[in-house]
Design a protein that fits this description.
CATH architecture of the largest domain: 3-Layer(aba) Sandwich
Radius of gyration: 18 Å
Structural class: alpha/beta
CATH topology of the largest domain: Rossmann fold
Number of strands: 10
Largest sheet: 7 strands, mixed
Helix content: 25-40%
Strand content: 15-25%
CATH superfamily of the largest domain: Alpha/Beta hydrolase fold, catalytic domain
CATH class of the largest domain: Alpha Beta
Number of helices: 10
Length: 286
């Protein structure tokens, strides 16, 4: 696995947000932002592919763990678990790293944050890859997420953690192997000092979500991307980004590049062959 540097930034509310920097070179850098219940580990296979040097050129990749996830601090004020706050956290990271503009790769919630960054500070965004997310969210997908987000139970082994993750996500990854589910579990659980395994996020992220305070009106943010190179990656089995929503997005953003991923739901891992090809083709323009 490609080595990375673990870095820390102080963000609002006295919180420390941690992120990984994969050094690659002087091409336009990439910011990777994970989904609602995930963390920087989601990109441990993707980031090295993006940062890799080709013909002596490469690009730095920054992968965040948003507040309340992974190694970043948990926020005592759960109402700070909101896309507008995450947006400002990312802008603070750009300022700290001296990044004038970056390409954003956002999975689910990370795509929402990417759209909001572009809406507020378009000069900081060179292009965006939206992974299975759009300005509308299908109610069936939201209902499924609401059914598990905030779960605080623990299990006694990583194998049982894999079984728990599989129970929630098997519909989205029908071809995943036992090894895949173990990898998934290691990215989404952490082991406590007593040996038990628990989900690697603050259960408090569920409160804003379940109170309906998680989704601002995103159409203005999405429309701000019409002047930017934008790639949409869509799991063909997705229950959050349905064909009807994709059609609306493509009609509103005629230049939107589109990559469907077969036999995958919400959300593609971005290591699928079609995802890798689409991302590399997209990045070649920067």
């Amino acid at each position: 696995m490609t080595e990375f540097e673990e870095r820390t930034i102080d963000i609002s509310g006295g919180i420390k947000m941690r992120y990984r920097r994969y050094p690659g070179g002087d091409m336009t850098p990439v910011i990777c932002i994970h989904g609602l219940t995930r963390n920087a580990s989601d990109f441990e296979d993707v980031a090295p592919l993006i940062s890799a040097r080709t013909q002596d050129r490469g690009r730095d990749v920054y992968v965040v763990s948003l507040r309340g996830r992974g190694t970043s601090d948990r926020d005592p004020n759960v109402h700070n678990y909101h896309p507008f706050v995450y947006r400002d956290d990312i802008l603070a990271l750009l300022d700290k790293e001296g990044i004038d503009a970056a390409i954003f790769v956002g999975t689910s919630l990370g795509g929402i944050v990417s759209m909001l960054v572009n809406e507020k500070a378009g000069d900081r965004v060179a292009g965006v890859v939206l992974n299975d997310i759009g300005p509308d969210l299908a109610p069936e997908g939201l209902a499924r997420i609401a059914g598990y987000v905030g779960g605080s139970g623990s299990v006694d082994s990583i194998e049982n953690a894999a079984l728990a993750i599989r129970a929630i996500n098997a519909v989205a990854f029908p071809d995943a192997t036992d090894e895949d589910w173990l990898k998934f579990a290691r990215r989404t659980f952490r082991q406590r000092e007593d040996g038990a395994w628990e989900l690697d996020y603050d259960p408090g992220i569920a409160r804003p979500f379940n109170e309906g305070d998680h989704t601002p009106d995103l159409w203005a943010a999405f429309m701000s991307l019409t002047a930017k190179p934008t790639l949409l990656i869509n799991g063909e089995l997705s229950d959050l980004l349905t064909p009807a929503i994709v059609d609306k997005m493509r009609a509103a953003h005629p230049a939107l590049l589109y990559c469907p991923v077969a036999r995958v739901g919400h959300a593609p891992m971005l290591t699928e062959p079609e995802s890798v090809r689409a991302i590399h083709s997209f990045l070649a323009a920067f």
